[in-house]
Prior knowledge:
There is one protein chain. This protein is mainly α. It is about 55% helix and about 0% strand. The chain contains four helices and no strands. The chain has helices spanning about 5-10, 10-20, 35-50, 50-55. The relative contact order is 0.19. The model has no long low-confidence stretch (mean pLDDT about 85).
Amino acid sequence: xxxxxxxxxxxxxxxxKLKQKYAELTDDDLKYEEGKEDExxxxxxxxxxxxxxxxxxxxx
Length: 60
């Protein structure tokens, strides 16, 4: 599972993979802001009904 630094460094690539797998995600859902990562993960978990660990598993 990628760590915080890996996520911030390659977010555009990861965002594309998430959009491919979960077509219902919007750019607003995937908006990455430094210091607000937990807020973003909360939005994703709520919208997808999956835990952060499950969402990140697509990058393994």
